[in-house]
# Entry
Amino acid sequence: MNDIDAWVWWLVGAAALGIPLVVTAMPEFGMFAVGAVAAAIAASVGGGAVVQVLTFVIVSVALIAVVRPIAARHRTQRPQLATGVDALKGRQAVVLERVDGSGGRIKLAGEVWSARSLDTGHAYEVGQEVDVVEIEGATAIVM
# Structure
């Protein structure tokens, strides 16, 4: 055991930290693994035990402090390109059959959709333009 250099132990530690990264999908383990690789580099150039540990701690903490907030911000952002029914929200449509609180038909994005008025007391007549507020199943909610 004494014949193995310190940098090898740091690489073993980095590999060991990579296992829970893959299993749990927690990116913090990956950041610790990168810190262990940095400590292995410090050990390979002759840094003592204190330098190795400080390198591991500084690199790991710096990655967590910088990368984690960026990753969290990207995770909470909505995609730039709306697809599916999300792309239809906010679009305009033309009334084909009278639309009120109980139903009707509109032409939306070149397709005929069933529609319902958002305000149940308000009706839209044939030819009128309406805005799509929401899509519920196969029914467009308009106003």
User: Anything to note?
Assistant: The chain has a mean pLDDT of 90. The longest strand covers residues 92-100. The domain at 84-142 is CATH 2.40.50.140 (OB fold (Dihydrolipoamide Acetyltransferase, E2P)).
